[in-house]
Amino acid sequence: MGNKIYKIGIIKGDGIGPEIIEEAVKVLDAVSTKMNFEVNYEEFLLGGIAIDETGVPLPDETIKGVQKCDAVLFGAIGGPKWDNLERHLRPETGLLGLRKAMGTYANLRPAMVYDELINASTLKPSVIQGVDLMVVRELTGGIYFGEPRENLEDKAYNTMIYTREEVVRIAKVAFDIAMKRDKRVCSVDKANVLEVSQFWRDIVEDVAKDYPEVELTHMYVDNAAMQLIREPKQFDVILTGNIFGDILSDAASMLSGSIGLLPSASTGNKVGLFEPIHGSAPDIAGQGIANPLATISSVSMMLKYALGEDEASQRIDDAIHKVLSEGYRTGDISAYDAKEVCATSEIGSLIADYVSR
Length: 357
Ligand code: NAD
Prior knowledge:
Elements: E1 4-13, H1 17-35, E2 37-43, H2 48-54, H3 60-66, E3 71-76, H4 91-102, E4 106-112, H5 125-128, E5 132-138, E6 150-151, E7 156-157, H6 164-179, E8 184-189, H7 195-208, E9 215-220, H8 221-230, E10 237-240, H9 242-256, E11 263-267, E12 273-276, H10 293-306, H11 310-325, E13 328-329, E14 340-341, H12 344-355
Parallel strand pairs: 1-2, 1-3, 3-12, 5-10, 8-9, 8-10, 13-14
Antiparallel strand pairs: 4-5, 4-11, 6-7, 11-12
Helix pairs in contact: 1-10, 1-11, 1-12, 6-7, 8-9, 10-11, 11-12
Bound molecules: nicotinamide-adenine-dinucleotide (NAD).
């Protein structure tokens, strides 16, 4: 039997995008060689560079091409050069359009704390040591999209609405992820006040029956916000709707304390988009000093959640730990026990080397 072959879409984007993607591809190449699978790449344009080359932030070729991939790895888009364009022509509009075209209704935002960088967080080490949680946020429904919506002279309103189908499919994503982790789901809602939340809760209970190994708990969103800061270690997978997830995932990302470390994914339909949570960092673009770890970590997520290559994913996670424990740091995290301040490409090469051993 021949090796498995995956087709990975690559979107470098703008600013530090090309620099961090180069390192992520270096690591993916190394781990695929080690684990005996093959990766074919196809590059697509998005954002500012797409505007410069084609006149629009999301070319049709990108929309069509990504659908034929097994997964897509994305750097970041945007920058001052394109800030004054009309809204429909801006880089960010291209990214929102791509997510919509890909039908990604689930946003996965892990938050983990590396022991080596424990002092990067604003919270006490005793509170955050060992944190490893995943926020699963519903991305295409809820109050951000609900109809009717109106802004009138004397009142304005939005509608929080979820259908059974929307809740079932996002709940399944969360339970499937929990099966690959610590098998615990905490569903966050406001069922004491909102009918839509009670509906959500009842359906999540139903879906849970298909996952007898997973422990399900429920929490009100106000309490969840407090618990995330008070005792974040209690969480494994947090399942929640669009607006609650928007707020909780940003709060959770600050547990780790550094924007250059955390990956994310938008999944749902066949093809998922894997990307760092940070932007294109125009202030440091082109200098070779960006932290590639969030993007390399996104490769790990892609391997685990899109391709089922769990061992390859674990190799990358282990290599990141090793590089950090040996004191190699890019400038953004050099204040925390750095033995050596490294360039973007040096960090990528070290990790590629460790995953190959
Ligand atoms: P940003 O995340 O790009 O940068 C914020 C700060 O963090 C900057 O000081 C930057 O240098 C630093 N930083 C970010 N990533 C880093 C890394 N990997 N290594 C070291 N330092 C890093 O956010 P911003 O400055 O608000 O936005 C800049 C541009 O990025 C804007 O055009 C914005 O629209 C765009 N943006 C894109 C995305 C995306 O593509 N998903 C997300 C957020 C912002």
